[in-house]
Amino acid sequence: MTSPYTPQKNGVAKRMNRTLVDMARCMMQTKSLSKFYWAEAVKIANYILNRSITNSSDYITPYECWFEKKPNV
Question: Other CB atoms closer than 10 Å to residue 9's CB: what's the count?
Fold first, then answer.
């Protein structure tokens, strides 16, 4: 149990945020981008994660779960 309105205590959210930050950092470091593109890198990392297959949803993407159609990749 966690306190209401305290997302910082949510372990799942913390792990997802860490994953997004790590992905964004890797993308920016690989292409030697400035910090100006940080928000865009996080947005792209989220886009990639939402179109990747997860084990918890019977090998379909989160996009397919939500919209009930295959993503146009």
Answer: 10
- Number of compact structural domains in the chain: 1
Report the predicted TM-score, pTM, of the whole model to 2 decimal places. 0.69
Rg (CA), the chain: 15
Residue 26, domain extent: 7-67
41 is a domain residue = yes
DSSP for 36-65, written as a single string? GGHHHHHHHHHHHHHTS--GGGTT--HHHH
Per-residue pLDDT tens over the stretch 30-67: 999 999 999 999 999 999 988 887 777 677 888 888 88
Q: How far is CA 53 from the centre of its chain?
A: 12
